[in-house]
Amino acid sequence: MAPLGIIAGLGDLPLAIADNAVASGQGVYVLRVKGFEEPALSKFPGDIIGLGEVGGVLKRLKAAGCKDVVFAGIVNRPNFSDLKLDMKGMALLPKVLSAARQGDDALLRVLVNEFEKQGFNVLGSHEVNGQLLAPAGLIAGNNPSPDDMADIEHAARVVAATGALDIGQGAVVCDGLVLAVEAQEGTDAMLDRCAGLPVTIRGTDTKRRGVLVKRPKPGQELRIDLPTTGVSTVEKVAAAGLAGLAIEAEGALLLNKSAMQEAAERLGVFIYGFPPELGL
Amino acid sequence: MAPLGIIAGLGDLPLAIADNAVASGQGVYVLRVKGFEEPALSKFPGDIIGLGEVGGVLKRLKAAGCKDVVFAGIVNRPNFSDLKLDMKGMALLPKVLSAARQGDDALLRVLVNEFEKQGFNVLGSHEVNGQLLAPAGLIAGNNPSPDDMADIEHAARVVAATGALDIGQGAVVCDGLVLAVEAQEGTDAMLDRCAGLPVTIRGTDTKRRGVLVKRPKPGQELRIDLPTTGVSTVEKVAAAGLAGLAIEAEGALLLNKSAMQEAAERLGVFIYGFPPELGL
Asked: What's the CATH number for A133-274?
């Protein structure tokens, strides 16, 4: 069986995918992106390669016999003028630069298209490991109250709007007030700043209110960059005094679901999968 | 001449308005909101009063002979269940609570309507002191480059969208990428976090790129809560490596314009007033 090719950035997601592929017997070949090398991935067969070496990536994946390829983990946007480009990278650069001005999603589509043109089958993390995908309904904790449901719906509407502008995939709403919108700082930094807002407009650990909502951008390339949550997300949701975390069912990844459920129950927050049509 | 009534929160704006009203010969009566008492305002005739004492505010303004009233300065949303309410405050509370769920703008409209019903003439800061309003075109520094203009237009579009959802009045865009969107944390905190983003996606003081855009929410109550910028905004724009600050012409306040211009020239950033129809 052809090993799964993983083009990997930082975080637990590429590790979960690699472990799963090894356990299933498929095996893996992991290309870690230079500057974003996740140490836990060094135990797998693979290599480290620069972001600009597109030709090198393709050649190595072919040499390793890969057919299926998945992009997983966090890689920040490079400074394009500092990239060390190989021939293929140079050929692709004009397309990449013009896509980059249209946002992250356009940029990622250029990469996916190029890999497909080269005969690879580009899969999403959720297609490689179905366990990761968030289900619908209550996942942990108590059912959201009517106030929580109103906040979930409003935040879902907000993220649909900011997502349509390719701004980000998350927002925090408390009693109808939008406390924070996620852009390039990421979810963890957004939750940290919510924890620093005046307690008059947010919840506390004795009186929880408000929700974090994560959902994909409308029409986004689901094979790359699906919103990802994990135990640390649950912990930061709790630290910000929120009542819970709501993600779009089948539109977000739960990394280590059972550990997330355990953390949510322990901290007294809910995890809830809302229907994909909410707030659209 | 009836003195100008100022219901004042924190910051330099109420001070600028009070100084102006005294200099013009109108005189002032300043009600400082408890918990948000700007020390520099203690030299003016007035009083300190709680947010829930709506009846008390109206009575004092009448006793001081005020006809024109202006709301100025920063007051965070209170915890409504902690408010000390007088009779008038209690009568207004249901309306306030239901408006609060619809956002800041709806909440402020309830207050304006009540003051008008009581016979006061509620004015915006820009109507009381025309010097504060941002003009159109270049205000300081070098003309924005074509890349800067593209970022200004994209950020103007983003803030129109987030404003329509009553999220906030500001965003930062660099090379087409939305670095940050302002919600309850305020402009200064948003700029501080931009300064902490990877230098690959933002400018630096040797190679400035990206812009902060501030504009009112579409259709917002302009007499309260017009976006306000000052010298510290210019300094934080520079510290975040941005090329400049763009505000909607006639839709934002410049506090101490000449000091802002001086800071912008010194730090090498522009201040630019874009046309109100941009990005709509």
From this structure: 3.40.140.80
